[in-house]
Amino acid sequence: xxxxxxxxxxxxxxxxxxxxxxxxxxxxxxxxxxxxxxxxxxxxxxxxxxxxxxxxxxxxxxxxxxxxxxxxxxxxxxxxxxxxxxxxxxxxxxxxxxxxxxxxxxxxxxxxxxxxxxxxxxxxxxxxxxxxxxxxxxxxxxxxxxxxxxxxxxxxxxxxxxxxxxxxxxxxxxxxxxxxxxxxxxxxxxxxxxxxxxxxxxxxxxxxxxxxxxxxxxxxxxxxxxxxxxxxxxxxxxxxxxxxxxxxxxxxxxxxxxxxxxxxxxxxxxxx
Length: 272
Description:
By secondary structure, this protein is an all-beta fold. The protein has one helix spanning 85-88, and strands at 6-7, 14-16, 20-22, 27-28, 36-39, 43-46, 53-56, 61-63, 66-70, 73-77, 104-105, 111-114, 131-132, 135-137, 143-145, 157-163, 168-176, 187-190, 193-195, 202-207, 217-220, 223-241, 244-256, 259-269.
């Protein structure tokens, strides 16, 4: 994979938040919000509230949740909730916690820029958080079984699946629609490879094992496959009802073996 353009810094060592003394290094010049990087060494840090110690191993794909530049040096943070259970697990022990990391130096020693992993191609991974008037994009890759989010979703549970940024397929039963940190999944398998044929709308995921509750296709003793088929269909949920509109939630529909799964993709709030 080709390295992107680097900007060389000439200032001295930097003491970052009292954690690590770093020699000045080139930053990754094109790292922006919602882009993707892979760790080039293990990153030991905390969440932004300094409540939980976190370790992100070498060669872990991350999505950049935010960036800033201070004195010519770029920093980034990532949302650990989007990572697999074994990495986000420390967050579950803290009450009312932040799921994002502290600011991390965006140096070539820490990160390398990468393209969006193919296993995330089943949703618009880089649209989350974008705003247009009263509408906010909410695409996070969470697929819920069914065709639309219920009006009383805040008090309901459902069946959810997703692929984490670091490439684990997670399945949840009786999962609350409203959550801060995902608990331990009912089942989880590592994605071994993925393809996304152009214009097909399909994301084809390959595994060494399957999840019994889902229609994995067994190709051999250690090769299982699951296809997420995107569609052009969508649904709308009006809250609380069409006569008194306070929120409008929209979702995209995907299909797995002819069964509908929906991904909430935007929320529009109307103030009365």
